[in-house]
Amino acid sequence: MSEQGRPRLTVVDAPSNLGLRPSRPGKEPGVRRLAEALRANGLVERLQARDGGRVMPAAYSFALDPAIGVRNWRGARDFALDLAGHLRPLLDRGLVPIVLGGDCSILLGPMLAPRERGTYGLVFIDGHDDLLVPKTSQTGGAAGMDLALLLGHGPTALGNLGGAGPLAQPENVAMLGMRNEWSAGPVMADLVANRIGLARSLAQLRQGGASAATAQALAVVANRNLNGFWIHLDADVLDNALMPAVDSPQPGGLSYDELIAIVGRLVAAGGVAGMTVTIDDPDLDPTGAIGAAFTDALVRALGPA
What we know:
Elements: E1 9-13, H1 34-40, H2 43-46, E2 50-54, H3 73-92, E3 96-100, H4 108-112, E4 120-125, H5 146-150, H6 156-159, E5 173-178, H7 186-194, E6 198-201, H8 202-208, H9 210-221, E7 228-234, H10 256-268, E8 272-278, H11 289-302
Parallel strand pairs: 1-2, 1-3, 3-8, 4-5, 4-7, 5-6, 7-8
Helix pairs in contact: 9-10, 10-11
Protein backbone atom coordinates (compact mmCIF):
# COMPACT_ATOMS: atom_id res chain seq x y z
CA MET A 1 0.00 0.00 0.00
CA SER A 2 1.43 3.39 -0.93
CA GLU A 3 2.15 5.88 1.85
CA GLN A 4 -0.30 8.30 0.23
CA GLY A 5 -3.10 5.74 0.35
CA ARG A 6 -2.47 4.53 3.90
CA PRO A 7 -4.96 5.45 6.60
CA ARG A 8 -3.66 7.45 9.56
CA LEU A 9 -3.54 4.71 12.17
CA THR A 10 -3.71 5.17 15.92
CA VAL A 11 -3.42 2.26 18.36
CA VAL A 12 -5.82 2.24 21.31
CA ASP A 13 -5.61 -0.25 24.18
CA ALA A 14 -8.92 -1.74 25.35
CA PRO A 15 -7.74 -4.44 27.78
CA SER A 16 -11.13 -5.73 28.88
CA ASN A 17 -11.64 -9.39 29.71
CA LEU A 18 -15.13 -8.77 31.11
CA GLY A 19 -16.83 -10.74 28.35
CA LEU A 20 -15.21 -14.10 29.12
CA ARG A 21 -15.70 -16.77 31.76
CA PRO A 22 -12.74 -17.41 34.09
CA SER A 23 -9.85 -19.29 32.52
CA ARG A 24 -10.13 -21.67 35.46
CA PRO A 25 -11.68 -21.29 38.92
CA GLY A 26 -10.35 -18.10 40.46
CA LYS A 27 -8.28 -17.00 37.44
CA GLU A 28 -9.13 -14.09 35.18
CA PRO A 29 -8.84 -14.53 31.40
CA GLY A 30 -5.43 -13.40 30.20
CA VAL A 31 -6.71 -11.51 27.14
CA ARG A 32 -6.43 -8.37 29.25
CA ARG A 33 -2.70 -8.51 28.38
CA LEU A 34 -3.15 -8.71 24.59
CA ALA A 35 -2.49 -5.02 23.96
CA GLU A 36 0.53 -5.03 26.25
CA ALA A 37 2.01 -8.02 24.40
CA LEU A 38 1.46 -6.60 20.91
CA ARG A 39 2.96 -3.28 21.92
CA ALA A 40 5.98 -5.10 23.35
CA ASN A 41 6.42 -6.65 19.91
CA GLY A 42 6.71 -3.15 18.45
CA LEU A 43 3.29 -2.97 16.81
CA VAL A 44 2.86 0.80 17.16
CA GLU A 45 6.31 1.63 15.79
CA ARG A 46 6.18 -0.94 13.01
CA LEU A 47 2.81 0.36 11.84
CA GLN A 48 4.14 3.93 12.03
CA ALA A 49 1.00 4.62 14.04
CA ARG A 50 0.14 7.15 16.69
CA ASP A 51 -0.38 6.13 20.30
CA GLY A 52 -4.10 6.51 20.93
CA GLY A 53 -3.99 5.82 24.66
CA ARG A 54 -5.80 3.31 26.83
CA VAL A 55 -9.27 2.81 28.30
CA MET A 56 -9.37 0.72 31.46
CA PRO A 57 -12.28 -1.56 32.38
CA ALA A 58 -13.86 -2.18 35.75
CA ALA A 59 -12.51 -4.99 37.92
CA TYR A 60 -13.38 -8.49 36.75
CA SER A 61 -16.10 -10.31 38.69
CA PHE A 62 -16.25 -14.09 38.83
CA ALA A 63 -20.00 -14.11 39.52
CA LEU A 64 -22.67 -14.58 36.86
CA ASP A 65 -25.69 -12.29 37.24
CA PRO A 66 -28.65 -14.70 37.21
CA ALA A 67 -31.18 -11.99 36.34
CA ILE A 68 -29.46 -10.78 33.16
CA GLY A 69 -27.52 -13.95 32.37
CA VAL A 70 -24.40 -12.06 31.26
CA ARG A 71 -21.10 -11.94 33.14
CA ASN A 72 -19.87 -8.51 34.17
CA TRP A 73 -22.66 -6.87 32.20
CA ARG A 74 -22.51 -3.57 34.08
CA GLY A 75 -18.77 -3.34 33.60
CA ALA A 76 -19.06 -4.30 29.93
CA ARG A 77 -21.76 -1.66 29.41
CA ASP A 78 -19.78 1.08 31.12
CA PHE A 79 -16.60 0.08 29.30
CA ALA A 80 -18.37 0.27 25.93
CA LEU A 81 -19.61 3.78 26.72
CA ASP A 82 -16.16 4.88 27.95
CA LEU A 83 -14.40 3.41 24.93
CA ALA A 84 -16.86 5.06 22.54
CA GLY A 85 -16.23 8.39 24.22
CA HIS A 86 -12.47 7.90 23.91
CA LEU A 87 -12.67 7.01 20.22
CA ARG A 88 -14.94 9.85 19.05
CA PRO A 89 -12.32 12.63 19.08
CA LEU A 90 -9.85 10.35 17.33
CA LEU A 91 -12.38 9.69 14.58
CA ASP A 92 -13.16 13.41 14.40
CA ARG A 93 -9.46 14.01 13.63
CA GLY A 94 -9.60 11.59 10.72
CA LEU A 95 -7.61 8.88 12.50
CA VAL A 96 -8.27 5.16 12.07
CA PRO A 97 -8.16 3.43 15.46
CA ILE A 98 -6.69 -0.05 15.78
CA VAL A 99 -8.34 -1.11 19.04
CA LEU A 100 -6.48 -3.86 20.88
CA GLY A 101 -8.49 -5.99 23.31
CA GLY A 102 -9.36 -7.66 25.28
CA ASP A 103 -12.16 -9.95 24.31
CA CYS A 104 -14.80 -9.52 21.61
CA SER A 105 -17.20 -7.59 23.83
CA ILE A 106 -14.98 -4.53 23.25
CA LEU A 107 -16.56 -4.26 19.77
CA LEU A 108 -19.64 -2.57 21.25
CA GLY A 109 -17.73 0.65 21.96
CA PRO A 110 -16.20 1.11 18.50
CA MET A 111 -19.53 0.49 16.81
CA LEU A 112 -21.20 3.03 19.11
CA ALA A 113 -18.49 5.67 18.70
CA PRO A 114 -19.31 6.85 15.15
CA ARG A 115 -23.07 6.57 15.51
CA GLU A 116 -23.59 10.34 15.27
CA ARG A 117 -21.42 10.46 12.14
CA GLY A 118 -23.64 8.16 10.08
CA THR A 119 -24.29 4.51 9.29
CA TYR A 120 -21.40 2.06 9.30
CA GLY A 121 -20.92 -1.48 8.12
CA LEU A 122 -18.97 -4.27 9.78
CA VAL A 123 -16.69 -6.98 8.42
CA PHE A 124 -16.71 -9.63 11.13
CA ILE A 125 -13.71 -11.98 10.85
CA ASP A 126 -14.11 -14.57 13.59
CA GLY A 127 -13.94 -18.30 14.18
CA HIS A 128 -17.37 -18.12 15.85
CA ASP A 129 -20.55 -16.34 14.80
CA ASP A 130 -20.92 -14.63 18.23
CA LEU A 131 -24.71 -14.68 17.85
CA LEU A 132 -25.44 -16.21 21.24
CA VAL A 133 -27.85 -14.66 23.72
CA PRO A 134 -28.14 -15.56 27.42
CA LYS A 135 -30.56 -18.44 26.87
CA THR A 136 -28.31 -20.06 24.24
CA SER A 137 -24.95 -19.32 25.89
CA GLN A 138 -23.30 -21.96 28.05
CA THR A 139 -20.88 -19.47 29.63
CA GLY A 140 -22.80 -16.21 30.01
CA GLY A 141 -19.92 -14.38 28.36
CA ALA A 142 -20.70 -11.26 26.31
CA ALA A 143 -17.73 -12.13 24.10
CA GLY A 144 -19.89 -14.83 22.50
CA MET A 145 -22.83 -12.44 22.16
CA ASP A 146 -21.22 -9.33 20.68
CA LEU A 147 -22.67 -9.57 17.18
CA ALA A 148 -26.11 -10.47 18.53
CA LEU A 149 -25.95 -7.44 20.84
CA LEU A 150 -24.89 -5.14 18.00
CA LEU A 151 -27.91 -6.31 16.03
CA GLY A 152 -30.23 -5.53 18.94
CA HIS A 153 -30.72 -9.02 20.38
CA GLY A 154 -30.17 -9.97 24.00
CA PRO A 155 -30.41 -7.80 27.13
CA THR A 156 -31.44 -4.20 26.49
CA ALA A 157 -28.71 -2.99 28.86
CA LEU A 158 -26.13 -4.09 26.28
CA GLY A 159 -28.17 -4.21 23.08
CA ASN A 160 -29.42 -0.63 23.35
CA LEU A 161 -26.39 1.29 24.60
CA GLY A 162 -27.20 4.87 25.43
CA GLY A 163 -30.64 4.44 23.90
CA ALA A 164 -29.04 4.31 20.46
CA GLY A 165 -30.87 1.17 19.35
CA PRO A 166 -29.10 -1.54 17.33
CA LEU A 167 -25.56 -0.49 16.46
CA ALA A 168 -25.51 -2.47 13.21
CA GLN A 169 -28.07 -3.50 10.64
CA PRO A 170 -27.89 -7.10 9.39
CA GLU A 171 -27.70 -6.10 5.73
CA ASN A 172 -24.56 -4.05 6.49
CA VAL A 173 -22.66 -6.95 8.09
CA ALA A 174 -20.28 -9.34 6.33
CA MET A 175 -19.21 -12.42 8.32
CA LEU A 176 -16.08 -14.32 7.30
CA GLY A 177 -14.32 -17.45 8.54
CA MET A 178 -16.69 -18.95 11.11
CA ARG A 179 -16.19 -22.61 11.95
CA ASN A 180 -19.07 -23.20 14.38
CA GLU A 181 -21.58 -23.23 11.48
CA TRP A 182 -24.27 -20.97 12.91
CA SER A 183 -24.82 -22.76 16.21
CA ALA A 184 -26.77 -20.02 18.00
CA GLY A 185 -30.26 -21.43 17.45
CA PRO A 186 -33.05 -21.16 14.87
CA VAL A 187 -33.74 -17.43 15.24
CA MET A 188 -30.13 -16.53 14.53
CA ALA A 189 -29.85 -19.17 11.80
CA ASP A 190 -32.78 -17.49 10.05
CA LEU A 191 -31.14 -14.09 10.50
CA VAL A 192 -27.93 -15.36 8.91
CA ALA A 193 -29.75 -17.07 6.05
CA ASN A 194 -32.13 -14.26 5.18
CA ARG A 195 -30.92 -10.92 6.50
CA ILE A 196 -27.15 -10.77 7.00
CA GLY A 197 -25.44 -9.05 4.08
CA LEU A 198 -22.87 -11.81 3.67
CA ALA A 199 -22.06 -14.93 5.69
CA ARG A 200 -19.19 -17.16 4.62
CA SER A 201 -18.10 -19.94 6.94
CA LEU A 202 -14.54 -21.16 6.62
CA ALA A 203 -15.72 -24.02 4.40
CA GLN A 204 -17.69 -21.66 2.17
CA LEU A 205 -14.83 -19.17 2.05
CA ARG A 206 -12.41 -21.88 1.00
CA GLN A 207 -14.81 -23.23 -1.62
CA GLY A 208 -15.14 -19.88 -3.38
CA GLY A 209 -11.73 -18.50 -2.49
CA ALA A 210 -10.66 -15.84 -0.01
CA SER A 211 -10.31 -13.22 -2.74
CA ALA A 212 -13.89 -13.67 -3.91
CA ALA A 213 -15.20 -13.61 -0.33
CA THR A 214 -13.33 -10.38 0.38
CA ALA A 215 -14.74 -8.78 -2.76
CA GLN A 216 -18.22 -9.85 -1.71
CA ALA A 217 -17.66 -8.41 1.77
CA LEU A 218 -16.59 -5.09 0.26
CA ALA A 219 -19.73 -5.05 -1.86
CA VAL A 220 -21.70 -5.17 1.40
CA VAL A 221 -19.79 -2.57 3.42
CA ALA A 222 -18.02 -0.26 0.95
CA ASN A 223 -21.00 1.30 -0.77
CA ARG A 224 -22.45 4.77 -1.13
CA ASN A 225 -25.21 4.10 1.40
CA LEU A 226 -22.70 3.74 4.26
CA ASN A 227 -20.28 6.21 5.79
CA GLY A 228 -17.58 3.57 6.23
CA PHE A 229 -17.01 0.26 7.97
CA TRP A 230 -15.26 -1.37 10.88
CA ILE A 231 -13.21 -4.55 10.77
CA HIS A 232 -13.44 -6.97 13.69
CA LEU A 233 -10.65 -9.54 13.93
CA ASP A 234 -10.84 -12.35 16.46
CA ALA A 235 -7.54 -14.24 16.57
CA ASP A 236 -9.43 -17.53 16.81
CA VAL A 237 -10.32 -17.25 13.11
CA LEU A 238 -6.76 -18.45 12.51
CA ASP A 239 -5.81 -22.09 12.22
CA ASN A 240 -5.53 -23.51 15.71
CA ALA A 241 -2.07 -24.84 14.83
CA LEU A 242 -0.96 -21.21 14.37
CA MET A 243 -3.06 -19.57 17.09
CA PRO A 244 -3.79 -21.96 19.97
CA ALA A 245 -3.68 -19.13 22.55
CA VAL A 246 -7.45 -18.60 22.54
CA ASP A 247 -10.24 -19.40 24.98
CA SER A 248 -12.43 -21.46 22.62
CA PRO A 249 -10.16 -23.31 20.17
CA GLN A 250 -11.52 -25.22 17.18
CA PRO A 251 -9.78 -27.35 14.56
CA GLY A 252 -8.72 -25.66 11.34
CA GLY A 253 -8.90 -21.97 10.49
CA LEU A 254 -7.37 -19.40 8.18
CA SER A 255 -3.69 -19.36 7.34
CA TYR A 256 -1.72 -16.20 8.03
CA ASP A 257 -1.39 -15.56 4.29
CA GLU A 258 -5.18 -15.76 3.90
CA LEU A 259 -5.78 -13.41 6.82
CA ILE A 260 -3.19 -10.90 5.62
CA ALA A 261 -4.69 -10.90 2.12
CA ILE A 262 -8.24 -10.38 3.44
CA VAL A 263 -7.43 -7.59 5.90
CA GLY A 264 -4.96 -5.93 3.55
CA ARG A 265 -7.51 -5.76 0.76
CA LEU A 266 -10.22 -4.42 3.06
CA VAL A 267 -7.96 -1.62 4.26
CA ALA A 268 -6.65 -0.82 0.79
CA ALA A 269 -10.19 -0.43 -0.53
CA GLY A 270 -10.72 2.73 1.52
CA GLY A 271 -13.57 3.53 3.86
CA VAL A 272 -12.29 1.64 6.88
CA ALA A 273 -13.16 3.54 10.06
CA GLY A 274 -11.21 1.32 12.43
CA MET A 275 -10.45 -2.22 13.52
CA THR A 276 -10.72 -4.30 16.67
CA VAL A 277 -8.21 -7.05 17.45
CA THR A 278 -9.20 -9.56 20.12
CA ILE A 279 -8.81 -12.89 21.97
CA ASP A 280 -5.07 -13.69 21.64
CA ASP A 281 -4.23 -14.63 25.24
CA PRO A 282 -0.61 -14.10 26.34
CA ASP A 283 -1.18 -16.33 29.37
CA LEU A 284 -1.53 -19.23 26.91
CA ASP A 285 1.65 -18.22 25.08
CA PRO A 286 4.48 -18.66 27.60
CA THR A 287 7.30 -18.15 25.08
CA GLY A 288 5.64 -15.23 23.31
CA ALA A 289 6.19 -16.86 19.92
CA ILE A 290 2.48 -17.01 19.05
CA GLY A 291 1.96 -13.33 19.78
CA ALA A 292 5.10 -12.41 17.85
CA ALA A 293 3.81 -14.19 14.74
CA PHE A 294 0.41 -12.55 15.18
CA THR A 295 2.05 -9.12 15.43
CA ASP A 296 4.05 -9.82 12.26
CA ALA A 297 0.82 -10.66 10.43
CA LEU A 298 -0.89 -7.46 11.58
CA VAL A 299 2.07 -5.41 10.41
CA ARG A 300 2.01 -7.12 7.01
CA ALA A 301 -1.73 -6.52 6.68
CA LEU A 302 -1.83 -2.93 7.94
CA GLY A 303 1.67 -1.53 7.70
CA PRO A 304 3.69 0.32 5.08
CA ALA A 305 4.43 -1.55 1.88
